[in-house]
Design a protein that fits this description.
This protein is an alpha/beta fold. Among the domains are: 115 residues, Nucleic acid-binding proteins (OB fold (Dihydrolipoamide Acetyltransferase, E2P)); 164 residues, 3-Layer(aba) Sandwich (Rossmann fold); 50 residues, no CATH class. The strands form three sheets. Strands 1-2-3-5-4 form a five-stranded mixed beta barrel. Strands 7-6-8-9-10 form a five-stranded parallel β-sheet. A hairpin with a 4-residue loop joins strand 2 and strand 3. Helix 4 runs parallel beside helix 8 and helix 5 packs parallel to helix 6. It is flat. The protein starts with 5 loop residues before the first helix and ends with a helix.
């Protein structure tokens, strides 16, 4: 038998008294009375359910429905309410809302005025996280003084993660691309019941392996991103204790950049992601390799520069020695003698050419002054002109004759008689004289005139056929 609270009993009694009264009341009066009773009797409530039909207004207010399998409740969250949990509101989200039941009088609807929003199931985990964090911090497990530095050049790395997850693929891919240390994998589950115990046991086994003559430089504890529930095994005390007790420095790389776990706080170093952890562990190897490669290039440049400088010094000394050598002075004098001889030769040749031209000019003037020579030259010029005048008309006549013969040959080729001479015939309409080109243009009884190579033939159309006639040419059909 369920128990009825005093508030509910008072509310039921008031309603009973109101129903007994016979005096009618307005809708507003009745609604105000219901509003007073509801808001006083159902204040500061916690309601769990699924968000549906979420509407975010430009004013900053949010209107939605909170529902479960059997009922639904209208909700309103005014601007400035909800705190950090406001961002968790979305259709389909399972939430726990805190607020008061109110009545919206214009519509006569009751609704939940939301003050707090908490994602269902996360609140308890978050509280447990904060309790363990405070406990371990009080013990000094998070102190920077107890954290050990990570070796600059790790060559053997212990890896605690799932062998089938994305984290191991990311880590190995970065190692293969930058530097390949020896990786000792201790496979574990990184989610679900018992995963925390497996992770703690793996850290202990890797420490014992390191102490057995195979020293590890660092242990990497990692997994990919997920929800708070997915990452919870890294928030358990057994994992934190195992990391704190490890003799080998531990790097924690759990989840994404925004994810923080207890393992991150206890570890000697925290990386934002698995890939980032792999890059940090290999960064000094990459830097050293780049330094060595650049040092080789710098040494080669310096050696080449020193060689070039020595060569320049040697070449300068050689030039100075050549300038002061006696042979250089002798060669200079010899070159001057050669240039003087060549200059004298050019002057002599120029004088000879000038005298030759002067002599030829005098000879031409003497020849021009002799009358007989001038008459002979005029006769020769007259003969040349006569020959030219006789040749010009003959050449023009020859060109005109060749042009005429070419035109006659083209006319003969285009002449209808030439076509008839090749064995063809021309058929004309005897009445109109038009050339017959197609059989379809004829009718029975039409008189035709056919011209042959020699003579004409007159005929009458009795029948005709359409289409193209193929067969041997007239020349090939001749006997």
């Amino acid at each position: 038998m369920s128990r009825v609270s005093k508030t509910q009993w008072s509310f039921a009694g008031d309603l009973f008294q109101e129903t007994v009264q016979k005096t009618p009341e307005s809708v507003s009066e009745l609604t105000q009375k219901l509003k007073k009773q509801l808001e006083s009797g159902f204040a500061d409530r916690k309601v769990a359910g699924e968000v549906s039909n979420l509407r975010l207004q430009s004013s900053g207010h949010a209107y939605f429905v909170l529902k479960d399998a059997g009922a639904q409740l209208a909700c309103v969250m005014f601007r400035g309410q909800g705190g950090a949990g406001r961002a968790a509101l979305r259709d389909g989200a399972q939430v726990i809302l805190g607020g008061d039941i109110t009545v919206y009088e214009p519509r006569g609807n009751y609704q939940l005025r939301v003050n707090t929003v908490e994602v269902q199931g996360v609140g308890a985990l978050q509280a447990a996280f904060e309790r363990l964090k405070e406990k371990l911090a009080a013990e000094g497990l998070f102190d920077a003084s107890r954290k050990r530095p990570i070796g600059r050049y790790p060559v053997r790395i212990g890896l605690v993660t799932s062998p089938s997850g994305a984290a191991i693929q990311d880590v190995l891919h970065v190692f293969s691309r930058r530097f390949c240390p020896e990786v000792i994998l201790d496979p574990v589950r990184v989610q679900g019941a018992g995963a925390a115990q497996e992770i703690a046991a793996a850290i202990g086994r890797l420490n014992r392996f390191s102490q057995s003559g195979n020293p590890l430089d660092v242990i990497l504890v990692t997994r990919g991103g997920g929800s708070l529930e997915d990452l919870w095994c890294f928030n358990e005390e057994v994992v934190a204790r195992a990391i704190a007790a490890s003799e080998v420095p531990v790097v924690s790389a759990v989840g994404h950049e925004i994810d923080f776990t207890i393992a991150d706080f206890v570890a000697d170093f925290r990386a934002a992601t698995p890939s980032a952890a792999a890059e940090i562990l290999t960064q000094d190897w990459v830097d050293s390799r780049e330094f060595v490669e650049s040092a080789g290039r710098r040494l080669a440049v310096l050696a080449q520069r020193r060689l070039n400088r020595s060569g320049d010094i040697l070449e300068g000394s050689l030039r100075r020695w050549i300038r002061v050598h006696p042979r250089r002075r002798l060669e200079t004098r010899s070159q001057q003698v050669d240039e003087t001889i060549e200059s004298l030769r050019r002057v002599a040749a120029r004088s000879v050419r000038t005298l030759g031209r002067l002599l030829e000019s005098h000879r031409q003037r003497m020849l021009a002054q002799r009358p007989r020579m001038r008459v002979r030259a005029g006769q020769q010029a007259l003969l040349r002109l006569r020959s030219a005048l006789m040749l010009v008309p003959g050449r023009k006549l020859q060109r005109r004759r060749q042009l005429l013969e070419g035109l006659l040959a083209r006319l003969r080729l285009l002449s209808p008689q030439n076509v008839l001479n090749r064995g063809y015939s021309l058929t004309l309409d005897a009445e109109t004289g038009a050339l017959v080109r197609e059989a379809t243009s004829l009718v029975s009884g039409r008189r035709l005139q056919t011209r042959l190579q020699s003579g004409e033939v007159f005929s009458v159309v009795t029948r005709f056929s359409e289409g193209t006639i193929t067969g041997p040419s007239p020349e090939s059909s001749r006997p």
